[in-house]
Structures are given as C-alpha cells and as structure tokens.
C-alpha cells in the first residue's frame, strides 16, 4: 500500500503533555505542527501520573490560553509537611520562597491540553501504529506511521521533536548519545484509594521503615506511596497489609493517622535518574522524559517537560522566523541548565528521605542530622522551598518573562 506524503514545519512524536503543549505554543507563534501518538486519547487519560505543578507550570497553562481550570479545580498548596520519625515540621513555601505549588494531576493537564488542541484545530493523530522516524539528522526528517484507520503516512518536516516518553523511539534512532544514569535500590508502591483526605498538605515522611508520601486527588479519592523493593510484587500486598505499612510509617506521638478506604489501584513505580546529552541531534530535538527522567520525590518530571517545551517553542520560532537553524543550538544548554538543577534536587530529596537497604548505620544518623538542620534552619528550608516550587526563569533558561499579571506575584527572593 502506498504512503500518503505530506509536509509540516514541526513533526512532534508524542502526544502527552510535552508534545501537546509544544504544539499549542507553536500555533500561538504561527508555526505549523503535526503530533503523532501511539496511545489513544482515552488510554493516556487513564494513566495515573504525578500531581504537583510548579507555579510557572500553572502560569504557562493559564497565560498561554490552554485553560484556567487549574485555578478553579486545582488546589493551591502553600507548603508541605516533612514528617521525621513521627514528628511533623511544616515547610512554608509562601514565607520562604514567596510561591505555591498546585495539586493538579497530570491527567487533568493532559485533558486540558487535548481539549485546547481540538478547540484550536491542532493536528494530533492519536492511536497511530508502526511509527518510526527517518533522516533525523538531515534537512528534511520524516515521521512514518500508520494512522488509526490503517492508512500509511509519511510526514516530512523541518524540525522533528521527540516527546515520546522515557522509552523514546526517537532517542534510540540517533547515535552519539552521552547518557548519565543513577539507579536506586528501591522503588515506590503507589495506591489510589477511595477515602477522605488525611491532611490538607502533602506529607513527606521519613521513618526507619522507609519513606512514605501522602498526597491527594479529590475529596473522595487519595494517592499515597511508600518505599518498597524494586522487584516488589503487587500481589503480595493485601489492602490490610498496605494500610498497616503506611500507618506505621507516619505514626507519631501527635496521633496522626491516615483515613482508610478501599484501594482502587496498586502499582510499583520505577525509580531512576537519567539524562541524555545533547538534547539536540541534528534536526531532532528531545524533550521531557525522552531526554531525562527524575525520581518522583521532588515532583519535577512534568514540570521539567513543560519547561523544556517552553524553551523549545522559543528557539524553533526563532529558527523558523529567521530561516536559520542555528537558533536551535541554544536549546541544549538552556534546557540542560534547569534539567541538572532538577536532577540534583530530585536526587537530594530522594536521599534525604529514603532508607537505603544495607547502608551502614552512620548513613541513617547522618540523614537525621541533615533533616534536623533542614527543619531548624531558615536558610536550609528556603533551599527546599525554592527547589520544590521551581526556580524562576532566569539566566540561561530564561529569556523574557511576561510581566506579572496580578495572580502571579513575583517571589520575594
Ligand atoms: C502525586 O500526587 O502523585 C505526587 C505528589 C508529589 C510527588 C510525587 C507524586 O513528589
């Protein structure tokens, strides 16, 4: 069967939040794009992912006209609880960094973006199969795929973007990659349960039994995690066993307990730090999880992906406007600046709160020393608050920021 040949300016492989946000920003800049995605819209919407947005991610969704639903239905969090061996300490983001984060699950970010792309006539092809890329380092790279109706296509473009997640097919199509990997001797066991919230803010708990995170979804549905072995089997964990473990990890003299309910979903989440450099290979540019992954402890994955595509939209717009691909050279250094800050932050939050199996007792004592410093020193807490709420756009990943609109007071740093 012959392929239908077509052309576009930017071919985007991957229709998750990174790919859709890029396509949206490019349209605002007058640059045409086509997005292909192997999953159906329904499949992506059903995937459970993390739920915290930095202030600048919220700002991007609202100010670029995707949707302001996050402001109406998301929950502003002005701090978090750090729970150390059953004693709670609040880290006040507003006081320390002049910023908040928003609890707004990635699924909702995807739904808003998918809706906005449909509303604005964006060309997004869900449910494609047999997808591959060709001539990625040449002048006219291509996306090859079979659409959801079984028709074969070849879309030639000027620039190709790989926003196709951590197992990225586009990344694997290029050679000369420098990869940095850090593995951890643990993973997260995640649950979704039908129960009321146990607390207003997220609780990050360190205990001798290991780490636990108490997050939220809605008034009737909650998301929680606890540190487990990387090869942990979900089948070994009855609801009763899960609740006993979570309760034991947060228990303390203040009597804090989790409100329990039926567990709707259980899964073991992979855990690693990874960066692929450079993020540009000829006319292929990698974004989001295709270029880097972080452990979930710092809630940075989605925020980093959105920060990548914000930079990417700017450099692609300039390259197209000036008909000069050298503008694309700025992508790797500008994006990596934030990527490595986020890598450090996520690694730090992880090692600060998890128990490392087999580590000498010194390590656990040293970890407690660090946590004591963190919760008693304003300078140390401010470092956490600044990293968690997201570094302001400045320096190498900067460029012009929009003027403050009132909803977004600039931090008093
Ligand atoms: C979540 O709500 O899924 C979540 C929140 C914070 C994290 C990771 C996951 O650090």
How would you characterize the overall build of this protein?
This protein has 413 residues and is α/β, with parallel strands linked by helices. The protein has 2 domains: 4-51 and 105-177 and 278-357, FAD/NAD(P)-binding domain (3-Layer(bba) Sandwich); 180-271, D-Amino Acid Oxidase, Chain A, domain 2, CATH 3.30.9. Helices cover 34% and strands 25% of the residues. It has 12 helices and 23 strands. The protein has helices spanning 17-28, 41-46, 55-63, 69-73, 93-97, 106-119, 169-172, 239-250, 301-321, 331-353, 361-376, 378-389, and strands at 4-7, 10-13, 33-36, 52-54, 75-77, 79-84, 87-92, 101-103, 123-125, 129-134, 142-146, 152-156, 159-162, 178-183, 187-193, 203-206, 212-214, 222-228, 263-269, 272-277, 280-281, 284-286, 292-293. The strands form 5 sheets. A 7-stranded mixed sheet has the order 7-6-16-17-18-15-19, with helices on both faces. A 6-stranded mixed sheet has the order 9-3-2-13-22-21. Helix 1 packs parallel to helix 9 (301-321) and helix 11 packs across helix 12 (378-389). The radius of gyration is 22 Å and the shape is globular. Mean pLDDT is 94; it is low at 398-407. The structure holds P-hydroxybenzoic acid. P-hydroxybenzoic acid (PHB) binds next to loops.
